[in-house]
């Protein structure tokens, strides 16, 4: 079997991946925050829609966390 090194995986092809921001309070709640589960539809540019289930303090926070992970994507809470 041949081994492939240095190959890019499909989720690394998108340019947006280098622009995403991650961390407590940016792409997820801070530890100890009161949260509930939200179902978010993310519509990235040039990609298929994603249903993302996350914990957040409010709908506004859930949208903000999705926008930090997928910059430039359309986002809605369902």
Q: What would you call the shape? A: globular
Biggest pleated sheet: 3 strands, antiparallel
Structural class: alpha+beta
Q: Which strand order does the major sheet show?
A: 2-1-3
Helix content: 10-25%
Roughly how many Å is the radius of gyration? Answer: 15 Å
The helix tally amounts to: 1
Number of strands: 3
Spans where pLDDT lies below 50 across 5 or more residues:
none
Distance between the termini: 46 Å
What fraction strand?
15-25%
The chain-level mean pLDDT equals: 83
- Please provide the ordered H/E string of secondary-structure elements: EEHE
Describe the structure.
This protein has a three-stranded antiparallel β-sheet with strand order 2-1-3. 14% of the residues lie in helices and 24% in strands. It is an alpha+beta fold and 78 residues long. It has one helix at residues 59-69; strands at 36-43, 50-56, 74-77. It has one helix and three strands. The mean pLDDT is 83. The protein has a domain at 34-78.
